[in-house]
Write a structure and sequence with these properties.
About 25% of the residues are buried. It contains 5 helices and no strands. By secondary structure, it is mainly alpha-helical. It has one domain. The radius of gyration is 18 Å and the shape is elongated.
């Protein structure tokens, strides 16, 4: 089972958005980050760290479930939790946080481009899609 102290340290790294090289992210890395952040959300001694873990695990849950069915998810989480035993959790959390930071920056850049008056806007005569 993962230790609480490395998880708490990981939360600090995750929350800091610490940057180094861009994170190499794969579906396996998404699953690893999901498992690590779920552990943080459940077991961190600090409420703020648990909140960071909860938000991060929601991000990674969305990424993982876009490629995996609900039936595949539980066994995959169990397998990955075992595989993470002995892993340097603070380093993993730093990589997960770095990737989340990169995606947040990409989203902000998109918002800025969309807010730019020079950016072409959708025509008002296009149909509105409602769910």
């Amino acid at each position: 089972m993962m230790k609480i102290r490395p998880l708490a340290a990981g939360a600090l790294l995750l929350a800091s958005g610490a940057s180094a090289q861009p994170a190499a992210h794969t579906p396996t890395m998404d699953l690893r980050c999901l498992v690590a952040t779920m552990g943080l959300a459940q077991r961190a001694p600090d409420p703020a760290a648990r909140r960071v873990g909860s938000l991060a695990s929601t991000f990674y849950y969305g990424r993982v479930t876009a490629r995996m069915s609900d039936a595949e998810l539980a066994p995959a989480i169990q397998r990955e939790a075992k595989a993470l035993e002995g892993t340097n959790i603070p380093a993993l959390m730093q990589a997960c946080g770095r990737f989340m930071q990169e995606r947040a920056e990409a989203m902000q850049a998109l918002g800025q481009r969309l807010a730019d008056p020079a950016t072409p806007k959708p025509s008002d005569d296009l149909p509105l899609i409602t769910l």
